[in-house]
Amino acid sequence: MGDINRSMGLTKTNDRSAKAHIIYRLVIESFTYSEDPSNSFVPTCSLNLVDLGGSEPLSQLDDFEIRASQKQKEHSFQVKGIFTLETIVSILSDPNQIHDQTWVPYRESKLTRFLMPYLEGDSSILWVCNVSPTDQNYRYNMRTCDFANRASKIVQKISAK
After folding, report:
1. In this model, does residue 149 exceed pLDDT 90?
2. What are the CA-CA distances from residue 140 to residues 32, 125, 130, 131 (Å)?
3. With bands split at pLDDT 50, 70 and 90, how would you rate the model's confidence at 139?
4. Structural domains of the chain in order of their starting residue, each with its CATH number
5. % helix, strand, coil for the chain, step of 5
6. How far apart are alpha carbons 42 and 1 in whole angstroms?
7. Residue 146: which pLDDT band, with cuts at 50, 70 and 90?
8. pLDDT over 70 percentage in the chain
9. Residues linked to residue 51 through DSSP beta bridges, in sequence order
10. Cβ atoms 125, 154 nearer than 8 A
11. Quick one: three-class SS letters along 86-134?
């Protein structure tokens, strides 16, 4: 459903660049029947596939309409979500910072607000970070690799229920 409303656009580096984040959520429930109703329970798990889009700087967008209209504001929200996610991953990946900092800025973007229970809680996370094979994107690739390195250092406390 979300993919139907997803908008794609042209940038200087990619002719099919996503202009929005997309979250696919699959919730699986399993019912365990018991003669005693107090022992019956429904364990659930959810799989969230998050595709971050729209992280290109405005200077790389060929679409003048985006750079000079209301869409610029929408684009800034998408970029803000990615920057907020980077900040949160930096905090969660550094054990010293986690103990020193009492506030993690989950509420600064809709993206991080949605991801909050998964980033801080009882979850397993698989991060897939893509890089470009071209030299002109070296700086972005290094930033992506730094993010992936920090994300791999987040320690989750998983408990079986």
Report:
1. yes
2. 48, 23, 10, 8
3. confident
4. 8-152 (3.40.850.10)
5. 45, 15, 40
6. 27
7. very high
8. 68
9. 22
10. yes
11. HHHHHHHHCHHHHHHCCCCCHHHCHHHHHHHHHHHCCCCCCCCCCCCCC
